[in-house]
Amino acid sequence: MRRGWRRREQAGPMDVALLALRVTAGSLLAGHGAQKLWGVLGGYGPEGTGGWLESLGLKPGKPWAYLAGASEFASGVLMALGLLTPIGAVSTFGPMLAATLTAHRGKPIWVSAGGAELPVVYMAIATALALAGPGRYSLDAALNLRVPKPLVALTAAGVAAGIVALELTREQPAAQQQAQARDATEAQDAAEREQEVGA
To answer: Which is the most buried residue in 29, 30, 41, 90, by most CB within 10 A?
Structure first.
């Protein structure tokens, strides 16, 4: 009896910690999705987000904006509520990997330099929640929900397919094309100068 009470006592702080982690990260992630979907919380909505995504090579941008916003919002809400936790955790990887491969590609890791620091933190939190579970203060615990492993695997396959589709359909942004053209021109000029000196 005493031992069981101690187990419950020790579980309490961990459950509160998981709740704080889930609600904070999930709410912020859902907020990013709401910015893209509805233009709230200082966001630009599907039109503005779509234009920005087109500048990153994702054309047409508006469908990608809806997809990014919906995946961020849905995975954030699931995370915050502790509902279908493995699915919410795996789903988080979709928009975060997409952001890493597009907006943050080729930059230093730090957010202050435009890097993927924030997506990496979200993916780490999602991984921790997938492994530790949502804790007692969650809808999964309240409703005694257990997500079947095949459904989690199907979600992971969907995320992977989405990332592959993104990479296969993404055009090189104009800025990258210009930089590559400039680099190629500079390399050609250097080669011509070397030939002239050699001659």
So the answer is: 29
With a CB cutoff of 8 Å and minimum separation 6, the contacts of 138 are: 18, 19, 22, 81, 82, 83, 85
The count of C-alpha atoms lying within 13 angstroms of the C-alpha of 173, restricted to the half-sphere facing its C-beta, is 16
Do the beta carbons of residue 86 and residue 147 sit within 8 Å?
yes
Report the candidate in 151, 178, 5 with the shortest Cα–Cα distance to residue 88: 151
The two structure tokens encoding residue 8: 């419950």
Q: What is the pLDDT of residues 87-101, one digit of tens each?
A: 999 999 999 999 999
Name the pTM for this structure: 0.81
CB burial readout 90-104, b (16+ within 10 A) else e: bbbbbbbbbbbbbbb
Residues 32-77: tens digit of each pLDDT: 999 999 999 999 999 999 999 999 999 999 999 999 999 999 999 9
| Whole-number Å distance between alpha carbons of 52 and 40 | 17
